[in-house]
Sequence to fold (518 residues):
Amino acid sequence: MQAVLDNLDEVLKGFGYTLFLFLVCAVASLVLGTVLVAMRVGPIAVLRLLATTYVSLVRNTPLVLIFIFFHFAAPIIGINFRWVQVHIGTFDFTSAFATAFVALSLYTACFVCEGLRSGVNAVPMGQAEAARAIGLPFGGVMTQVVLPQAMRASVPPVASALIAMLKNTSVAGVFFLAEALAVMRGLTNDNASQRLGIFLCFAVGYIILVEIVSLISLSLERRWRTA
Amino acid sequence: MAASVLFDAPGPATRRRHRIYTVVASAAILAAIGYALWKLNDDGQFEYALWEPFLTPDYLRALILDGLVDTVTMAVFAILGAVVFGFVFGVAKMSDHAFVRWPAWVVVEFFRAMPVLLLMIFVFFMWFISMQGSFLWIDQRSGFFSVVIALTCYNGAVLAEVVRAGVDAIPKGQAEAAYAIGMRKSQVMTIILLPQAVKVMLPAMISQMVVALKDTSLGYAVAAPGLTKVGQAIYKEFHNQVQAAIVLAVLYVGLNLLLTALATWIQRRFVGENKIDVVTVAAGIESQSRA
Fold:
């Protein structure tokens, strides 16, 4: 416990990296997941096949393996992120961060895609048919009837995917990023007698972040709930 | 895909447009695959020497016996522990006594909201870092135990929620009828509710096995045995990282697809429509809008 208080700036910086990584990956995986789900529920069979293959391949691959691929295999075939050199304040966003960003986003996108798809599937057929029957054009059917309901229904599964991703950012700590888990590993090495206290502090830190995300999701769901 | 909420059955003009999209998309996909293959070939990644370890009987034996078997062993132990953990804490969470219910709630929430890797590393440094020796057919038991304990706690916490959701899914009349014929609380739970809940829970449990199997690879952080470790040893020796990653991915994906197919079959054969969404349960977000 004392060790955490003594190194509070380092600990906070670790959680800062975790939070940054979560935010950028959340944006990227939401965008990529939306593209994937558009391909997956769209009318073009080839794109549907592509998205389905991507999702079933990536969701069954362990995240660690994706990290290993981007860290150790990809540089051999010329994919590397050594050109990423962004420094904001005391935070350095270099290749470790960029690699974690790419791996996590590609991995999470397929779970986001699944969440969005379950939202679309939750809208009953009759809704779209009724909208067409009263003469709404395609754009009207989408923007007024189908998508609002689909979005509402996909809040819980998408939020779950993002929460899982927030916990998965810890994997980046094993792959050279100095985020919270890596800081904890350093502290437990240096302060062997305080392992339990250090562990509890970091666990609580992660739990607070997770609870914040799930509170946001709950309030969104509540706000968009139908009367 | 005729029956989709999103679009009507296409007319002739739309079908023509779709054909154009199909051709363009296919061309783009083929071009991308072609470029990837050309690039790999250009870098000499198809050279036999790099693939040789995965065709050599000794290395294949290591990959299957030390890798796949250890990974599956870890997953099986973890899931068995998790089932016990899940039933104990799932039932405890439904207890009528607050002094049982609240501690169980705290334990479940704690393990569920925390990264499993954090727990794994803590367990490893706390108890197993200096442990030597083997366990059953596993060479290094230190990493093995860290992975199994961490995964037991995490997946157990998720399964505790699955147990609760499973019991909730049983019609109220079942418990009421059981009380009416004079059963006690423990009898209602063990004779009436849990047996029926298990049926509803089975697919969710198998999905959780897929998660556990994937998460065994987190043992990378504590030098645990398994596929990832063997793959790492191979690519460190032969510098064939690309090939090793591809082979490992094929093994993991194949194993997981088998499990998923099993879950789907069980769902269709034994359970029917009544489905527990593990992902949502794992994150602790339950939909209120569809109550």
In short: The longest strand of chain A covers residues 86-88. The two ends of chain A are 48 Å apart (CA to CA). Residues 8-41 of chain A form the longest helix (34 residues).
